[in-house]
Every structure is written in structure tokens, then in C-alpha cells.
From TrEMBL:
UniProt-recorded name of the protein: Phosphoglucomutase/phosphomannomutase family protein
Similarity comment: family membership: Belongs to the phosphohexose mutase family.
Boundaries of every Alpha-D-phosphohexomutase C-terminal domain copy: 427-468
One BP term from GO: carbohydrate metabolic process
Domain Alpha-D-phosphohexomutase alpha/beta/alpha: 2-136, 167-266, 270-379
Length: 478
């Protein structure tokens, strides 16, 4: 059964993610596009892919199916960041975007991200429509319409192009490259062998920034790591920052829509801090205004900042698609999640690790201070805030709503010596304490795993909350 999650379809290569299944999914998307597109113009789709095994071949097959259904396929010439594909959907006024990528997942996975005409992820309704088309195809015993690749090129139904040109220009207009250039920073960029390779060095080549890129070659196995910019996979970046005596290290995930960083001392800078630093910069230094949106698992520093700056804060379930929905409906200044997907006003409603890396450089240049000192000032003003997450595998799986109801019924009055002031069941169950600390328990909907998040004034308090969350989670299963 092929089903779409919050950001498309992902599966193991050669298991479920096969050429045959991919062509079926592409046909379902083509059916949906042809059914909903204005008949006065020929529909168009922008297609990109990452550095994973066979991603380029998979992308060609998608283009062949689109062409076989009368849809012009703008196909990237090489691997490309997901945000570049998304921006080109808007720039070309295309009807959809498709990216062959499994983002930060292990190398054995590949995936199919579906983008809407506004450049963000397809809505839940759009994804469900594709799933329904798949079911109808199965019931009818109907296969995909596929055009020969060379014929597609000859008839201009398949158009190879470079999506990065207009994208680089657009995001360069969203940052102050002159300010960044004036600081003459040393920067290490880490593409983690993903499709963000070369992006930051190319943009910063127009400045006086000294850039060293690591893990920027094609390596479909990602050097034995997961291409996820979290501390356990960034030891190479930490070492490079220290070796180069750089001001900062910037890491993007497998398809460059997420950001992670390392400061001048080699300390990991998580997305919570990147989010908070950029928000403060946009307000205090750029004089920008607007609402703020964050997922339920994101730092309480954002809450404190919105209160201090008199900004309206929206909290959503986990998943950037929820943030994107609000970015299209309201005047959102910035929106972000703890996993590193962050988007800002003036851009598409999409997380963008490349843009956020550039904005972090702007933060450092504006402050004219080492990043570790900037973070210390942020913590003094809006902290202290320490954060950690554990994924706990359970002996058996229960429905997500059953686990949440049990946890709600047995909600404690105190945790880690602090009074529980309220409980939130927006996504999983979140307990708020009197000292601003919190614990979130989110059961996976697809596997027997509890995702346990905690934030508190000290690392010791965070670990104590995580331990309590572990016990609470196991107690409802036993």
C-alpha cells in the first residue's frame, strides 16, 4: 500500500520504492493535475532530485509519465535542493513540483515529495486525492502512460534546465550579502553529501567570505551516516570548524530544506537557537513585523520573544505543512520546527536550510561578535533553555489516540518538582510546568515508538523530565 505522509511518500529502494511503483504514483499525480488544471493552458510540472542511489533515473521516469499525459516536465539537469524546485514551481507558474528525495532519511530510502503551485508541500487533501487515484488505477487494472525519453526531449515535452539560477538570485535578494561580505568571515559548509552541495559556496562567492565546503561530493551512501544535521552526524563539521578556525559551520540535510550549525568553538547550534536568533534579528535589526508560528515541539524561547515583542504566536502540530498552511493564510514573519525546517516572510512557504544558513551569517555579521557570545546573550535574555529528545521503542503498538487518552487520564500534578500548570493534546500530549519547562510525548502513528521531547532551564532538569516521560510512556503500554 502506497500512502503519503506529511511530506510525500518514502520507502526503501528496491523494496517498495521501485520503478514500477514510482510510475504508478506519477500517473496518479498526472491524473490529479489534469483533472484540476485550468483547461486553457497546458499543465506544467517542475521535477528535481537529490543525490541518492538512482534518484536521477527515477526523476527521468517521472518526467516520462508526465509527458505521456500531456504535461510539460521541467526536469533538473542535476541534483538540486528541494527549496530550489519549490521556488521554480512559483517562478514558472507550474501546476506542481515533484522532488525525488528521502530528505534526511537513511540512504536505503528514497522518496517522492509533492509540491503545490504555491511552492509549499501539497495539502492533506491534495495528497489524499493522489492516493484515491492510485486506488482507482488498481481497481481498473490501469497502468501509466509513458513517453519515450528522447521523444519527450524532441517534442519539448521534457525540458532539461538548471533550477538554481533564479532560486539563488531570489534568496540573495532576501539577505544582506553586502553586510555578510563586510565581516570577511571564515565559514565551513557541510552538504552532508546531499543536494545542497555547492549552493552556499556559490552564493557566497560574490562576497569576501572564505568558504570551505566538506562532504560536497556525490556519495549516495552518505559516507555511512544519515544526512540529518544533528549533533551525532556533525563530528566532521565540528572538526573542520576547529581546523579552519572558522567563525561558523553550516550544515544542510539531504535535500537542503533543513539547517544545523556549529559555532566558533565547535559547539552544536540546534534549530531552536537558529530560529530564535533569526527572529530577534528580523525584529530588532531589520524592523520587520508579523505573526510567528512554531510547532508544539519547539523552544519556549519563541514564546518569550513573542511576548516581549508583542507578536502573535501560533502553535501547530509537528510538520512543516502545518506552518506552511498558516504562512499562506496570515502575515507570518517566520515559522519553524525543532527538526530544522524554518521559513521566513518574502519566501515560499517552505523550510529552506540554505536561506537560513545565510540569515545566520547575517546575524553574526550584524552583531560583530562570535556566535557563541551571541547565543549566550540570547540565553541570558530569553532563557535559560536546554533541550533534548529521545525516541523510545515500545514492546507493542497501540493506537496513538489511545496512548494520549491514557496519558491524559493519568496526568501528574507535579513533574521534576515543578507544578504541572496545563496539558495540551494538540499533537501527542504536552505537560507545561510552572518554571516554563515542558515535556512532550508523541506516539508514532506507524510504529511502536514514543518520541519524547523536553525543555528546561538546565540539562539535568531535561534529563530528569525525559526519564519521567520514559516511565509514563511504558506504564500505559504495560
Amino acid at each position: 500500500m502506497i500512502s503519503f505522509g506529511t511530506d510525500g511518500w518514502r520507502a526503501v529502494i528496491a523494496d517498495t520504492f521501485t520503478f514500477a511503483n514510482l510510475r504508478l504514483v506519477a500517473q496518479a499525480v498526472a491524473d490529479s493535475i489534469n483533472e484540476t488544471t485550468d483547461t486553457t493552458k497546458q499543465p506544467e510540472v517542475v521535477i528535481g532530485y537529490d543525490t541518492r542511489f538512482l534518484s536521477d533515473r527515477f526523476a527521468i521516469e517521472v518526467a516520462r509519465v508526465m509527458a505521456g499525459n500531456g504535461i510539460i516536465a521541467w526536469l533538473s539537469r542535476s541534483d538540486v535542493p528541494t527549496p530550489a524546485v519549490s521556488y521554480n514551481v512559483v517562478d514558472k507558474k507550474a501546476d506542481a513540483g515533484i522532488v525525488i528525495t528521502a530528505s534526511h532519511n537513511p540512504p536505503r530510502y528514497n522518496g517522492f515529495k509533492l509540491k503545490a503551485p504555491y511552492g509549499g508541500s501539497a495539502t492533506h487533501e491534495q495528497s489524499k486525492r493522489v492516493e484515491q487515484k492510485l486506488q482507482h488505477m488498481e481497481m481498473e487494472g490501469r497502468g501509466p502512460n509513458v513517453m519515450d525519453y528522447q521523444r519527450g526531449l524532441d517534442t519539448d515535452m521534457i525540458r532539461r534546465f538548471d533550477p538554481t539560477w533564479v532560486y539563488f538570485q531570489h534568496i540573495s535578494d532576501l539577505v544582506n550579502l553586502d553586510l555578510i561580505s563586510s565581516s570577511e568571515m571564515k565559514v565551513v559548509t557541510d552538504a552532508m553529501y546531499g543536494s545542497g552541495r555547492g549552493a552556499l559556496p556559490a552564493i557566497l562567492a560574490r562576497t569576501r567570505t572564505k568558504v570551505t565546503e566538506i562532504r560536497g561530493i556525490m556519495n549516495p551512501g552518505f559516507g555511512g551516516i544519515h544526512p540529518e544535521p544533528i549533533v551525532k552526524y556533525l563530528t566532521d563539521l565540528t572538526a573542520a570548524v576547529q581546523r579552519e578556525q572558522a567563525h561558523v559551520g553550516l550544515a544542510t540535510d539531504g535535500d537542503a530544506d533543513r539547517i544545523g550549525a556549529v559555532d566558533n568553538l565547535g559547539n552544536f547550534v540546534d534549530p531552536h537557537h537558529v530560529f530564535a536568533l533569526v527572529l530577534r534579528h528580523l525584529i530588532e535589526n531589520r524592523g520587520m513585523r508579523g505573526d510567528v508560528v512554531k510547532t508544539i515541539s519547539t523552544t519556549y524561547m519563541i514564546d518569550k520573544m513573542c511576548k516581549a515583542y508583542d507578536l502573535t504566536l501560533h502553535e501547530t502540530p509537528v510538520g512543516f505543512n502545518h506552518i506552511a498552511d498558516l504562512m499562506m493564510k496570515r502575515d507570518i514573519l517566520i515559522g519553524g520546527e525543532e527538526s530544522g525546517g524554518i521559513g521566513v516572510k518574502g519566501h515560499i512557504p517552505e523550510g529552506d536550510g540554505i536561506l537560513m544558513g545565510l540569515l545566520l551569517l547575517e546575524v553574526i555579521a550584524q552583531a560583530n561578535a562570535p556566535l557563541n557570545e551571541i547565543i549566550e546573550d540570547l540565553q541570558r535574555t530569553f532563557g535559560p533553555a536546554c533541550y533534548a529528545r529521545n525516541d523510545v521503542r515500545l514492546s507493542k503498538q497501540l493506537p496513538k489516540n489511545v496512548i494520549v487518552e491514557k496519558l491524559q487520564d493519568t496526568a501528574p500534578t507535579t513533574m521534576n518538582g515543578q507544578t504541572v500548570t496545563r496539558v495540551n493534546t494538540l499533537d501527542g500530549i504536552k505537560y507545561y510546568m510552572a518554571d516554563d519547562s515542558w515535556l512532550l510525548i508523541r506516539p508514532s502513528g506507524t510504529e511502536p515508538v514514543l518520541r519524547i521531547y523536553a525543555e528546561a532551564p538546565s540539562h539535568a532538569d531535561v534529563q530528569a523530565l525525559l526519564a519521567e516521560g520514559d516511565k509514563m510512556g511504558h506504564s500505559v503500554i504495560s
